[in-house]
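Quick one, tokens below:
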């Protein structure tokens, strides 16, 4: 929506200000100082009113004169011709100003300041001729084209340089406002209307007419500096133009004035003189802090704190556009560092994104590690919640192939021994019960059981061991192996198992991480450098039941979190030789962790030993009850019933007595108190079904963290201009990362720790938003 204007053409709002006791007047942002009647219309001019020029049409009418579009007859070029008001409309002051404007423009030669071609008096009419330019006033051009901030600043820098050129020649404009700035079709600004300009001696304007609040106000009120409102002409100098430029730029960038300019005259004057300008970025959140510094410096109420010339303002805008430290800000180390960082971010966008990705992942690791070191219970709480989704999935044991036989408080071992003609059994000497256990295994051998697992320890040699060994051999003759529990782990000390029993059984560590604050973890194997890994009870039982006539070796690949069981047979002629079978089992596991992170580090392990564990979700009480039999009932049952109950199953015997010196009952995270034997049975069941709750290996954890960081970078950049939405997106995204753990466990049997990914996502948000704002500073 462009209109025809001219270099030098423009209007100014002037009028007689009311006295202090005058009636209150309400001002609008574009109103003059006080209302006045419109001046009488100047008479229309004939086309040949000025020798050498042909008047085409009127293009602007202001308080001082009228501007016409004309043609210079000698060159046929279009020009703008400004004519002073005539007759009663033109007083001595108007003629003086008109003549001064001609003198000022004649001194200035700048591509963005009106250039005067001719002046004189024709038929009693004062006039001067300028180059004709087609364009729009600054505020209208910005409103129509909506240019980005960097384009507004580019134009404004040129404008400031033009005003600075005038100031270097001792000229102060005194009426800078959008209406006096024209933007041509190439987007170049032109400063118009020097009718109120003064030629300065040094930095103080020479004036013959003192300015008072009750006399004519020079300039436009809403763009006036605080010192102009005081009525002291000696205070008006180049810094007043700087202030007006600050108001203009503030209005262009925010769409508002720096302070209220609507109201009665006294109120508006007070705001100009006293009210601090509102921080620009508080009005337009897209503006960076450096733009706050530039505008607030230009708009300082104390003129000594402003830019001293328009050139200084232009230079700081140039520094902003090129990412250099601003004069308006003190060059502290932190500020200069930030500016240099912003410059790097703008120049190397791809490199910045990659660096940001790596940095946030590393910072996320540090943050997550630090948090979990301080609050380790957070892991347990999260895993407890996640594993609530394991019910009915591959992570839940149903114990269909296992029967638990329980020794209870009411098991009368002496009466049972007497009924079975087993001598020497005394409840007072519990080691003598090994005799009864031997007879029990003989009865199990008649049932065709698959294997027998003792979650009972036999640590020392006794005179009763031959009876136990006899029962083991009876089972072995039917192809059913026997596995017994031992503790602690035997890396550093002798195996805590009767030597006689050790000759005929296999064994595994009956140590587990059964903690009421987190899901139960069955320790499948433990490893120490330069030694073979040791099996846990569940793994030893699974290996023995799958290959009862073979031995096995464990391979633990900690980096890939893989546990492999390989089977072999020994050569009697060469005891150290192993004849490997062509079968192996990759045991499912949840994760491999240092022993220091487990609950039972004191059970023969060093802090850096590795523990391969399996998370199990315990069946409900109905399943456990259906799979549990009383020791006394099994040993006294007739052979048919016993075979019906146990044939083809793995029998695990546990000591459920409550009066044991070291109880074997543990609090489960769902509130139940369960015997540890159930945990080992659940681990064995999952191994036999080759089902597990898996945990991502280290490289997958880092990959997930990198993806989360990338999502954080994307979210931060998308919401850079809307901090509240960005904060909400950050909270929702972090919550979503944690929430993903439940369906991962529920539908895929996958247990992962989201702390690293969540920290990387959250940390990436703020720097990504900052980088986006920096990179967009020239394209807003």
């Amino acid at each position: 929506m462009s209109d025809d204007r001219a270099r030098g053409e423009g209007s100014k709002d002037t009028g007689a200000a009311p006295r202090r006791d005058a009636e209150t007047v309400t001002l609008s942002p574009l109103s003059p100082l006080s209302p006045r009647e419109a001046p009488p219309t100047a008479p229309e001019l004939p086309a040949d009113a000025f020798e050498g020029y042909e008047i085409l049409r009127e293009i602007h009418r202001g308080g001082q004169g009228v501007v016409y579009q004309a043609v210079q007859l000698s060159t046929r070029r279009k020009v703008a011709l400004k004519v002073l008001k005539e007759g009663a409309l033109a007083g001595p002051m108007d003629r003086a100003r008109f003549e001064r404007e001609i003198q000022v423009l004649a001194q200035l030669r700048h591509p963005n300041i009106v250039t005067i071609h001719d002046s004189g008096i024709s038929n009693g009419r004062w006039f001067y001729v300028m180059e004709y330019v087609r364009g729009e006033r600054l505020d209208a051009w910005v409103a129509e084209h909506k240019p980005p901030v960097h384009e507004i600043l580019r134009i404004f820098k040129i404008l400031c340089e033009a005003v600075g050129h005038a100031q270097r020649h001792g000229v102060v404009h005194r009426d800078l406002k959008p209406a006096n700035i024209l933007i041509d079709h190439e987007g170049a600004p032109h400063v118009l209307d020097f009718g109120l300009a003064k030629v300065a001696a040094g930095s103080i304007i020479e004036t013959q007419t003192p300015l008072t609040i009750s006399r004519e106000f020079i300039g436009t009120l809403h763009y006036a500096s605080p010192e102009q409102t005081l009525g002291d002409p000696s205070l008006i100098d180049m810094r007043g133009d700087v202030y007006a430029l600050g108001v203009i730029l503030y209005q262009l960038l925010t769409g508002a004035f720096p302070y209220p300019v609507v109201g009665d005259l006294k109120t508006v004057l007070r705001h100009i003189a006293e009210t601090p300008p509102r921080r620009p970025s508080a009005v337009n959140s897209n503006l960076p802090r450096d733009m706050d510094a530039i505008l607030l410096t230009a708009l300082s109420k104390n003129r000594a704190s402003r830019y001293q010339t328009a050139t200084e303002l232009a230079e700081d805008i140039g520094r902003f556009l090129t990412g250099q430290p601003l004069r308006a800000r003190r060059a502290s180390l932190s500020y200069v560092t930030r500016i240099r960082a912003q410059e790097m971010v703008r120049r190397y966008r791809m490199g910045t994104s990659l660096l940001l990705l790596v940095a946030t992942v590393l910072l996320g690791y540090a943050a997550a590690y630090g948090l979990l070191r301080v609050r380790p219970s957070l892991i347990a709480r999260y895993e407890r919640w996640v594993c609530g989704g394991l019910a009915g999935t591959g992570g839940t044991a149903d114990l269909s192939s296992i029967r638990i036989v329980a020794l209870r408080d009411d098991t009368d071992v002496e009466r049972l021994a007497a009924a079975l003609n087993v001598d020497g059994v005394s409840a007072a000497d519990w080691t003598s019960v090994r005799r009864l256990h031997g007879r029990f295994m003989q009865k199990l051998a008649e049932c065709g059981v698959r294997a027998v697992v003792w979650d009972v320890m036999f640590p020392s040699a006794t005179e009763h061991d031959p009876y136990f060994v006899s029962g083991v051999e009876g089972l072995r003759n039917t192809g059913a192996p026997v596995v017994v529990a031992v503790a602690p782990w035997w890396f550093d000390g002798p195996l805590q198992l009767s030597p006689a029993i050790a000759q005929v059984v296999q064994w595994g560590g009956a140590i587990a991480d059964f903690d009421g604050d987190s899901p139960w973890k069955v320790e499948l194997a433990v490893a120490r450098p330069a030694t073979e890994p040791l099996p846990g009870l569940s793994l030893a039982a699974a290996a023995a039941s799958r290959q009862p006539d073979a031995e096995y070796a464990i391979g633990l690949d900690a980096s890939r979190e893989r546990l492999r069981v390989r089977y072999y047979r020994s050569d009697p002629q060469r005891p150290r030789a192993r004849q490997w079978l062509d079968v192996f089992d990759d045991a499912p596991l949840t994760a491999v962790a240092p022993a220091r992170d487990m609950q039972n580090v004191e059970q023969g392990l060093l802090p850096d030993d590795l523990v391969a564990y399996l998370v199990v979700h315990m069946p409900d009480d109905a399943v456990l009850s259906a799979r549990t039999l009383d020791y006394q009932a099994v040993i006294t049952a007739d052979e048919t019933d016993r075979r019906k109950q146990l044939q083809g199953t793995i029998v695990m015997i546990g000591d459920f007595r409550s009066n044991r010196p070291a109880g074997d009952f543990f609090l489960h995270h769902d509130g139940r108190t369960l015997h540890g034997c159930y945990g080992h049975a659940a681990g064995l069941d999952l191994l036999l079904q080759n089902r597990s709750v898996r945990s991502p290996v280290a490289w997958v954890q880092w990959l997930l963290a990198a993806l989360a960081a990338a999502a954080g970078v994307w979210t931060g950049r998308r919401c850079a201009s809307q901090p509240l939405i960005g904060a909400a997106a950050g909270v929702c995204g972090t919550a979503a990362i944690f929430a993903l753990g439940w369906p991962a466990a529920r539908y895929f049997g996958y247990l992962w720790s989201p702390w690293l990914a969540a920290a990387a996502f959250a940390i990436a948000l703020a720097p990504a938003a900052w980088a986006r704002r920096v990179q967009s500073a020239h394209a807003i």
